[in-house]
Q: What sequence folds into this?
């Protein structure tokens, strides 16, 4: 039996504790941020037109900055609105491992630890809760990743101790503690099954 825990905190009934868990992305949050990026894109395009028409003086790297922000906001808007429309599976956990939009498929044997991670953007006092995944053999996993993915994973490992973090664009009212607890149950069951075989 498969559960979609999108609208309630995860529970762990004894008879269904090993059932796959499927969590969808939060389409409203993705749409909100997508709209914000659209406004940023419009602002960058207006700034670019002002520069090209000569209405504002070009100082230093203004032209390149306007182009950069236009591309950045456009790409982010398309990505986030695509998430809102398609509403892909953000996270799936079953007896084989973990996968989803925010994490490449991983078998439980590849994972050393899953726990809640507090991310402090810009070293501030406000933090975001994320699910942190520490790999058992990060070098072996990175061989199949792009250069950008490898650099990002190494940066995360230095910053937080985790190689992968799952961002909080998940369904509302999802319990991160429940996700981690259920992941540990599934991982222990997979290890027990592997030992028996």
A:
């Amino acid at each position: 039996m498969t559960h979609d825990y999108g609208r309630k905190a995860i529970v762990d009934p004894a008879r269904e504790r090993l059932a796959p868990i499927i969590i969808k992305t939060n389409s409203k949050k993705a749409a909100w941020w997508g709209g914000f990026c659209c406004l940023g894109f419009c602002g960058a395009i207006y700034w670019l037109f002002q520069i090209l028409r000569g209405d504002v003086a070009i100082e230093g790297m203004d032209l390149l900055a306007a182009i950069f922000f236009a591309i950045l906001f456009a790409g982010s808007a398309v990505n986030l609105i695509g998430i809102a429309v398609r509403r892909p599976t953000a996270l799936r956990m079953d007896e084989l491992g973990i996968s989803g939009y925010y994490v490449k498929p991983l078998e439980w044997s590849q994972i050393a630890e899953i726990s809640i991670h507090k991310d402090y953007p810009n070293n501030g006092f406000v933090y975001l809760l994320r699910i942190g995944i520490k790999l058992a053999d990060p070098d072996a996993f990175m061989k199949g990743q792009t250069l950008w993915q490898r650099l990002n994973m190494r940066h995360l490992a230095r910053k937080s101790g985790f190689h992968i973090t799952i961002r909080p664009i998940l369904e509302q009212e999802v319990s991160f503690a429940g996700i981690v607890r259920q992941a540990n149950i599934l991982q222990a069951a997979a290890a027990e099954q592997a030992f028996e075989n």
In short: The first helix runs from residue 27 to 53. The first strand starts at residue 3 and ends at 4.
